[in-house]
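Re: Re: ligand-bound prediction request (bumping)

Still looking for help on this. To restate: I need the protein modeled with MGD bound, output as structure tokens. Inputs repeated here so nobody has to scroll up.
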Amino acid sequence: MTAGSYRICPLCEASCGLRIELHDGRVQRIRGEPDDPFSRGYLCPKALALKDLHDDPDRLRQPLVKRQGRLVPVSWNEAYAEIEVRLLPILREHGPDAVATVLGNPVVHRMGLLAYFPRLARALGTRNLFSASTLDQMPKQLSSALMFGHWFSVAVPDIDRSDFLLILGGNPLASNGSMWTVPDVRERLRALRQRGGRLVVVDPRHSETAAIADQHLAIRPGTDVFLLAALCATLFEEGRVQPGRLDEHLNGLEALRDFVQPYAPEQVAARCGLDAGAIRQLARDLAAAPRAAVYGRIGTHTTRFGTVNAWLVDALNVLTGNLDREGGAMFPKAPAFAANTLPGPAKGVRLGRRHSRVSGALEVNGELPITCLREEIQTPGPGQVRALISVAANPALSCPGGAALDAALGELDFMLSLDIYVNETTRHADVILPGRSALEVAHYDIAFSQLSIRNHARWSEALLPSEQPDDWEQLLLLSALVQGRDWRAPLAELDDAMLDEELARHLPEELRAPVRAALGDRPGPQRLVDLGLRLGPYGDAFGRRPEGLNLAQVRAAPAGLDLGPLQPRIPELLRTASGRIELAPAECLAERQALAAALDEPRPEWTLIGRRDLRSNNSWMHNLPLLAKGSERCTLQMHPDDARRLGLAEADCAWIEGAGDPLRVPVELSTTLRPGLVCLPHGWGHAGTPLRVAAQRPGVNFNALLSDRERDPLSGNAVLSGITVRIRPA
Ligand SMILES: Nc1nc2c(c(=O)[nH]1)N[C@H]1C(S)=C(S)[C@@H](COP(=O)(O)OP(=O)(O)OC[C@H]3O[C@@H](n4cnc5c(=O)[nH]c(N)nc54)[C@H](O)[C@@H]3O)O[C@H]1N2
Ligand SMILES: Nc1nc2c(c(=O)[nH]1)N[C@H]1C(S)=C(S)[C@@H](COP(=O)(O)OP(=O)(O)OC[C@H]3O[C@@H](n4cnc5c(=O)[nH]c(N)nc54)[C@H](O)[C@@H]3O)O[C@H]1N2
Ligand code: SF4
Ligand SMILES: [Mo]
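Reply:
Sorry for the wait, this slipped through. Here it is.
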């Protein structure tokens, strides 16, 4: 392997190890890295598009500033000076909450953004923090926090040792897994079935994953909560509850029984569109499997009962004795940055320490629901959002609201975007600061090492030099700037100050100086990673455990270090105030009445769900020629009987109408859906941007159809699936 050619793929949560061959500063070849202990040589078509991404002529390499309504290239210092002149008066006059920030999905794939954004947030002092998390996984984070005491104590299926996997609302064959870092999931699922294991998929659509399953339950969208309750109820009713080793660590078994009791399979079957006998049998199969895991993903989270779903998924893992056991749902032990591996007071978490100004939505994990962003911009009064900083986010396409949200972005007094493209969101910015190409930054996986099916530590070096400041340098400079400090001062001083604060947080006074010396003088995130690794559960504790890990060792292992299969972690992992698993959190129990009321909701004529495609990635990889090839992706799939009823043939256009803006879309006939169900991907609708490849196949914006008022009231997560719509021929 040529030096420096290893790179952790930054494109999705599988985080595969890639081998990237360069010649004269150009990408020659991209392959899966066979020596990666974790991804074992796997890669998907998106990884090959890293070359297109690096070479994309539309990717920004220079800052842009808006002059007379047009974004024009400027020097870095001009861009920073513009931010100073425009943003500081807003902060001075209206206070910190007048500036909102919104983080997008790629932030978690960028060590510099993830490690340094908190610095900027603290410097700003705003409470208006928003992110894609409330379009995605906040229900799981909340349920995990309530049950186990920390927002990142998320249990993942131990797929390689499991005998039974029940997947609800996830399609890992297209998404490559999510909240579950599992490279080459197809092969791992094949192996599970080969050794006699069973895969059961609950999905309204006969998805790519359902197609390779032993059993597919085509549930009605939005009704998993009843199915999950019925599975729990059946276990209680039939005397199949066997938490085993977990028994002594549980609170709330009776309260859980009480909550699910009304939902026997016979009570919910019609609502779920499933057979009561099949639900009962599934509960029995799950209980009987030697080692099983239940996994719920985005199809269960982006619904009105997202948090209740996430909770009941883990309740099932507990009731069947599969939580925290080999082959069940287990907790990774990340080598760095995982709060659940660090000593600290067990105090659980609090939800709703404050509320959003306009609709009173609860704060979750320090942020507010992103669907509140529009109204916070458009509603006058004290605390109104007047400026926005977007970091690798494209809410104009990814967030419900459509034209209204687009208009709101246009009404801001000032907008700054850290992004690599001028797109539907960043076209509203007054200043855009471009991030480096993924090949020009070093990387350590802060986030996904906490969700991985195997414990590991991997580092990738920057493969190519860059003239642009690194992500962390931009954020560090901005954090000085927003505090009115001299942003022309050397960044090393600012970084040292940040490191000192970090040390003060983790170490007693007498240890700080020697540790600081051991971390070296080179500024940047690698010192934070070294600190995290060395103080982490495998770390060398700066010499006190000489055989332990540090960054130098990880760097010396070119394709990463394997830290072994997942190990049981209860009770050590628990950070709840009681020190136990909270099997019946009060916040979830409070949903009892809403749930009972929802059981009788009538079935609409048409229901819309979303989908992902292996060759796409949310909204931002549609400008890459390699991925843009092939048939049209942004189509409305519907059952042939429905199409016939409407007089529509393949590729004819239909109108979809919902709470928001109507959409006109070509139809694709598909027997993967039941009649009455239609399916459209999100992330499309590329209008009004200079992205030349994407403009050829713009598609339509799924989220324009939706109102930004539909949320899971606990987690604040947007409702993005199971949408009631009307369909008519165009
Ligand atoms: N209807 C519907 N809506 C959905 C979903 C759904 O299933 N259905 N899924 C939701 C989910 S799960 C998510 S995570 C969100 C995603 O929501 P977002 O994060 O808002 O959307 P992305 O499309 O991921 O946009 C990423 C942005 O980051 C920029 N970018 C890419 N790489 C870099 C980089 O290296 N540096 C910088 N600075 N910028 C970069 C891109 O240009 C783009 O502007 O969408 C959500 N929206
Ligand atoms: N190729 C590709 N990979 C991606 C992304 C991408 O855009 N493209 N995005 C990345 C991101 S940001 C994320 S968060 C992950 C998401 O990863 P996943 O959670 O695996 O997301 P999806 O592939 O959208 O699969 C969701 C499934 O839920 C089903 N579903 C919809 N509604 C319901 C329901 O009410 N109940 C049930 N049981 N199922 C339902 C859908 O039919 C779909 O098959 O993927 C990541 N990986
Ligand atoms: S599965 Fe995800 S991480 Fe792996 S190569 Fe494809 S895009 Fe990259
Ligand atoms: Mo996501």
